[in-house]
Amino acid sequence: MNFRMRLVSRGDPLGYDPVERHKKIEEIVVRQRAGGDLKKYYRFRHDRWYGGIITADCAGCGLTCKFCWVRNQSILEGRQGGELLSPDEVTERILRLAQRKKINRVRISGGEPTIGRQHLFQLLNALQKKRVHFILETNGILIGEDKTYAQELALYPFLHARVSLKGCSEEEFSRLTGADPKGFELQLAALKNLVQAGVSTHPAVMLSFSRREAIDQLYNTIFKIDPRMHSEIEREEVILYPHVREKLQRAKLEYYSGHFPDQLHRERAEGPIAPEADG
Ligand code: SF4
Fold first, then answer.
1. In the predicted model, what is the mean pLDDT of the chain?
2. CA 66, 69, 73: angle at the middle one, nearest 5?
3. Spelled out in words, what is the top-level CATH class assigned to the domain 18-270?
4. Nearest Cα residue to atom 1 of ligand 1
5. What is the pTM of this model?
6. How far is the CA of 273 from the centre of ligand 1 (A)?
């Protein structure tokens, strides 16, 4: 069920540098170690998104989305919670759950999986012979900043990237994340880099805060990046958990549509719809 709420926030036209912030968070959630960098994870679970998926929730994200469903800000900042795990340990936990649930679809969620590049690629190396489908749920900032990231991801044909765009324009991106508006260009660049590198990918777009004209404009932009991707755009809407509603009210952020959790869980039981998190 969708509904409207009228609170207004214009956001800060300037903001933090999203690339710098990802790198700072990386210093907190990743530890370099010979034989495989360690990264913080705080949960392993089975979830019903995508028709059933094993999910490893990592700590740390370089954006600060005002609608983020992750309850604990200190987990997103990597300050508290989570356990430092090697790629082999993460692989082992994922595969154990996958075997128990008889599911071969896996993802990293909870935070931003592209933070800790070496850790991610070692994890993909460990998973690649295990006949799983890996969904990389990312905000795309680090892939947009460096196209070699996308080129390296292209070496893993069992991987699909879901790039979650935070709004439909630079202005919306900044209002929703508090980051420099130019970060939105990095999200679009991530889509371009992934398409050019030949990585299976699709965009998900948070539309709860967008007006019709902005949505139309973004659809045109995505069509120019790749006409095929235009029909694969996933429409995301905010999930109105009580703590998310509190965050939105504190931020005085206007939203036009959203899902109530109880309704969402009914829909989710009936089939796959937009996942509740990305990086
Ligand atoms: S919604 Fe995703 S990108 Fe935004 S802060 Fe939360 S984890 Fe990070």
1. 89
2. 70
3. alpha beta
4. 68
5. 0.89
6. 18
